[in-house]
Amino acid sequence: MKKLFLMMFSIATFVFAGNIKVAEDIQLTGKSQGEFYFPKFSPDGKSVFFTSGNFRGLWQLNLESGVLKQITALPGAGYKFVLTPDGKIIYFRTTEYKNKRRFHRLIEYNISTGTEKILEENERNLSPPTMAWKSGLFYLKNEKLTKINAQLSKTDENTAGLVYIENRNLILVRNGKKTILNPLGEGIYLWPSISPDGKKILFTLGGKGSYICDFNGKILTELGYANYPKWSPDGNWVLFMKDEDNGYNFTESDLYVKSSDGTEEFKLTSTDDIIELYGEWSPAGDAVVYHTDKGEIRLIKLKIEK
After folding, report:
1. Domain that holds residue 103
2. What is the count of structural domains for the chain?
3. Prediction pTM value
4. pLDDT tens digit string along 86-95?
């Protein structure tokens, strides 16, 4: 593959009423390279990272050169992996079974040198890493919150927020205090994240929909049926998927963008033969990367006019 754009194909330009335009849907990986899932942009937007089936291994695709590189083949490495804001380090959790018992490792991978550092090993109760707002990376070890990059100041740690799921509950850590927030009462909470300005929380309640609330749990916006919601880098939009399944497999899915106040919604994909899943924003907010049910990684170029 000499150039990434040799793999590109364009579709007719779609212009939505309002201020979002989708010009291209680009295929980044093909069947001959393998089946890949759950892509994420690098912080500089120049690479896309993703995993394979059952979250085995991690790959990096350089969008400028088109070079595809395997980072690791370890099982579980692709489940909720996290890149540091400078793009130099990936943190991921691996999973292995010994005598029918599951054990985890937490690994720090240096992208430039290709070296690994084991932070935790042979742990039974270990969560994937979670990024907090302005205070670095954390993980749960035996239900105790542990900070990875402890060199950050105590002031940052105490003032920033962290949201995660524990026993189906929405947990907020702020000003040194851990709270079970659960804005809509008991249920199955999913996919929480703090807005880029650090003032709001985006989350999904299973069977109900997705919502935006403040740090007191007050609902600010009801987004409706919106799975895997993701803040845009400026916090003005939420990317999500509307999917259907038969209890075993996805039967259809499309990607949408909705304004964070819930007033505008735009459909990004509309295909009969492609099931678009698990979209992620580019750092500049001008593109979306996602995977299909066939294991293709694709990229939507878009323009959001303010």
Report:
1. 34-128
2. 1
3. 0.90
4. 999 999 999 9
